[in-house]
Design a protein that fits this description.
This protein has about 450 residues and is an alpha/beta fold. The chain folds into 2 domains: about 180 residues, FAD/NAD(P)-binding domain, CATH 3.50.50.60; about 160 residues, D-Amino Acid Oxidase, subunit A, domain 2 (D-Amino Acid Oxidase, Chain A, domain 2). It has 13 helices and 19 strands. A hairpin with a 5-residue loop joins β9 and β10. The longest helix has 20 residues. The radius of gyration is 21 Å and the shape is globular. It starts with 10 loop residues before the first helix and ends in an 8-residue tail after the last helix. Keywords: Oxidoreductase. Pfam families: DAO.
Length: about 450
């Protein structure tokens, strides 16, 4: 699959509620704010601004939800990846760290409210998230997550081995971290629902309208040009993420691409569903070489992993790896697993793994670097970007504005090396613990 191909093998494209009708931009349109990018970040920004009475125009090169917002695995967990909360406080400093932690840990409140308020058909289920302990020594790190996230206002707890098995249906875990506010959904359906919400609040959404240039306008403000039209706006927000192509010079250098693949099985039988993920939670198997899985509305297991070696390039081998891992975790699955859908997405990675907020020019900003926390993170970022557009002082925002800067060269290979390191680390720790290893570990 090429980088910008359609969702021809995506479960979400096959099952999401239809997209609303949105035209391509033709001619000249005036707006207070022009938002570039129709993923969660751009859509929630446009929604917040439209609700506030701002005249907002959103431009999307393809269709809303075309990028990571429609290609992700659909799990929605309001946490940070890679860094702990104490590490984030040290890295970001105050008050920025505390503000961002508050927004992120409460992100699912926003997701749930938007889905409820706008009656978005997207398979939303909020039955929690489990990060499992794959060996006994992992429990101490999970206890630290309980302590730090609960201190920040989250509702989490440590699971015993028995509780983890009852909740997940897997006998392989030694406990786990349960985040009660975690959920999952059809991500493309959510993006399309947000599009309808923006339109219902008076925002204008133009698709198939790639931005070719953003230039100062002679009468003040900015001219945002597409092949057949122009938006004249006082302020411009770029929120194109990993699917950034043009629009503003060097914006696509602020991150490095990391690919991820997602696959969905055939619907499991009712009998299997009673013992495999019986509480319909989202499961992270706890390994650094991540395997995350959940159900969709039809009872299909939707699982994601990162490419590594043959995995992700040799499709037969990749499907076998995913099958072997799933059946190892759940030996009660006796039927043959068929991965009926398989697709790729891309992450805009940067080394801090939290979004970066760039001051491009007076009245123009950009945000990139979601680093794989798309659903909750993209959903809460709209509140920050809309606050900037509404004139909230920079020193009161939850993200610090900074000059445009390229991602370090090491990001071209660093994330992949980190995954390999995690895989070796987990292998050694599990062997030392004397517990079984999964296939292909």
């Amino acid at each position: 699959m090429t980088r910008f191909s359609p969702f021809d093998t995506s479960l979400w494209y096959a099952t999401a509620a239809p997209a609303p009708e949105t035209p391509a931009l033709e001619g000249e349109v005036k707006a207070d704010v022009c938002v570039v990018g129709g993923g969660y970040t751009g859509l929630t920004t446009a929604l917040e601004l439209a609700r506030a009475g701002v005249k907002v125009v959103l431009l999307e090169a393809q269709e809303t939800g075309f990028g990571g917002s429609g290609r992700n695995a659909g799990h929605c967990t309001p946490t940070f990846t890679h860094y702990s909360l104490p590490e984030l406080r040290t890295m970001l400093g105050e008050p920025w760290a505390e503000r961002l932690i508050e927004r992120q840990t409460r992100a699912n409140d926003r997701v749930s409210k938007m889905i409820r308020d706008y009656q978005i058909d997207c398979e939303w289920v909020q039955n929690g998230y489990v990060m499992a302990a794959h060996n006994p020594k992992a429990l101490s790190k999970l206890q630290a997550k309980v302590d730090t996230y609960n201190a920040a206002g989250a509702r989490t707890r440590l699971l015993s081995k028995q509780e983890a098995e009852e909740m997940t249906g897997s006998p392989r875990f030694f406990g786990g971290w349960f985040h009660a506010e975690g959920g999952h959904l059809n991500p493309l359906g959510y993006a399309r629902g947000l599009t309808r919400a923006v339109i219902s609040e008076g925002g204008q959404v133009f698709t198939r309208s790639p931005v070719t240039a953003c230039e100062r306008h002679a009468g003040g403000g900015w001219s945002v040009k597409t092949p057949k039209g122009t938006v004249i706006a006082d302020k411009v927000i770029f929120s194109t993420g990993a699917y950034t192509v043009g629009g503003w010079p060097k914006l696509d250098r602020t991150f490095r691409i990391m690919r991820v693949f997602v696959a969905a099985t055939q619907p499991l039988s009712d009998e299997e569903r009673r013992s495999v993920l019986p509480q319909n939670t989202t499961i992270h198997d706890g390994r650094g070489d991540i395997y995350v899985y959940k159900y969709n509305r039809e009872g299909r297991i939707v699982a994601s992993m990162f490419p590594m070696g043959r995995r992700g390039s040799d499709m037969d081998y990749t499907r076998q790896v995913m099958t072997d891992r799933l059946k190892w975790l759940h030996p009660q699955i006796k039927t043959d697993i068929r991965w009926e859908y398989f697709w790729f997405g891309e992450l805009d990675m940067q080394y801090r793994t939290v979004p970066r907020f760039y001051d491009l020019a007076p009245g123009v900003v950009a945000l990139t670097g979601l680093s794989g926390r798309g659903v909750p993170t993209g959903s809460m970022l709209g509140s920050i970007l809309s606050e900037w557009a509404l004139g909230v002082p920079e020193n009161e925002l939850a993200l610090k504005l900074e000059p445009l800067s390229a991602a370090p060269f090491t990001m071209s290979f660093g994330p992949a090396l980190t995954l390999r390191y995690y895989r070796v680390r987990d292998y050694i720790a599990t062997k030392l613990s004397g517990v079984p290893l999964p296939p292909h570990a």
